[in-house]
Amino acid sequence: MSITLLAIESSCDDTGAAVFRNGQLLSNVVAGQAVHEQYGGVVPELASRAHQQHLLPVVTAALRRAGIEKTDLDAVAVTQGPGLLGSLLVGNLFAKSFALALGKPLLAVNHMRAHILAHFIREPKPAFPFLCLTVSGGHTQLVVVRSALDMEILGQTIDDAAGEAFDKTAKLLGLPYPGGPRLDKLAQTGNPRRFTFPEGALDGYNFSFSGLKTSVLYFLKKETAANPKFVEENLADLCASIQHTIVQTLLKQLKKAAQATGLRQVALAGGVAANSGLRQGLQVLAQQEGWEVFIPDFEFCTDNAAMVGQAALFQYEAGDFASQLTSPDPRLKL
Ligand code: KG4
Ligand code: ZN
């Protein structure tokens, strides 16, 4: 589409800005927030303050890298939700003010749809309809994607998200936040069948990961009472076994959903798509089931503004603009 668009993402702890022109991504800038590491999780109040500090430099860098002047922009897009209210407010107020000052339309984007539509930033792109498993620090959703504007949740987590399950169990093992990528790395040299933990695949297509966290907690309490060095001596096997449990849970529901819907294009989205166990498990399952698998580049899996821009382009095409009265919605539904 022949428009120039600025997109802004600020739903959690990453501040992002991206520029598209003629449907092509010209720049995608993300500033993470190291401030949360010392607390072992995202602190909402600190996230809002950091967005406030990062947003202008990030937007300026995105425009500069794209070689675009503010006055070249035809529209401004921003994540409306779901996410942390304070974080969303910073991005929303910035985007609204920017759009208002430029006299250009505003597009309000659903963060979870954006994760899915990240598949359309670069080739290879799935064709509609397809099945998408979105797995991030905040969400676990199994979605039938009929079009860019028509999606249906088949199943989702009833408690912790998959990324949260990785991060929380990693924390129990003493790994620094965010533990998911570290647990993944350690798992690569461990035995995934050494320890057994409860899977979280519920009847139907929903997930539950809180039982895994509790089970790991009590297991470690018991073992370390007998041997204080238990975690240290078994770290790789513990990581591999936890990862195996989470991955098997995800793949079990994905397989059920693909069989029930007859969809053979299967897509992964969200930060946990980086997990090596999930990628390998999915490739094996895809061969057995005859699926075509789609996983975006990592920079488009974790929170970023390019996916927000891509979703906004579909909305622009459909004439789905936001009013200046639009406000962020922390619990925005898909
Ligand atoms: O999509 P994302 O950047 O943020 C949210 O919207 O939540 O996902 C971040 C999540 C974190 O929980 C992080 O630990 C997890 O993705 N993650 C991983 C890996 N890389 C990132 N989890 C397991 N293995 C990985 N390699
Ligand atoms: Zn996200």
UniProtKB/TrEMBL annotation:
GO terms for biological process: tRNA threonylcarbamoyladenosine modification. It is found in: Cytoplasm. Keywords: Acyltransferase, Cytoplasm, Iron, Metal-binding, Transferase, tRNA processing. Fe cation binds at residues 111, 115, 303. SUPFAM superfamilies: Actin-like ATPase domain (SSF53067). Its cofactor is Fe(2+). CDD domains: ASKHA_NBD_TsaD_bac. GO terms for cellular component: cytoplasm. Residues 24-309 form the Gcp-like domain. GO terms for molecular function: iron ion binding; tRNA N(6)-L-threonylcarbamoyladenine synthase activity. Pfam families: TsaD (PF00814). It catalyses: L-threonylcarbamoyladenylate + adenosine(37) in tRNA = N(6)-L-threonylcarbamoyladenosine(37) in tRNA + AMP + H(+). Binds 1 Fe(2+) ion per subunit. Its EC number is 2.3.1.234. Substrate binds at residues 134-138, 167, 180, 184, 275. Its main location: cytoplasm. Belongs to the KAE1 / TsaD family. NCBIfam families: gcp_kae1, T6A_TsaD_YgjD. Required for the formation of a threonylcarbamoyl group on adenosine at position 37 (t(6)A37) in tRNAs that read codons beginning with adenine. Is involved in the transfer of the threonylcarbamoyl moiety of threonylcarbamoyl-AMP (TC-AMP) to the N6 group of A37, together with TsaE and TsaB. TsaD likely plays a direct catalytic role in this reaction. This is tRNA N6-adenosine threonylcarbamoyltransferase. The gene is tsaD.
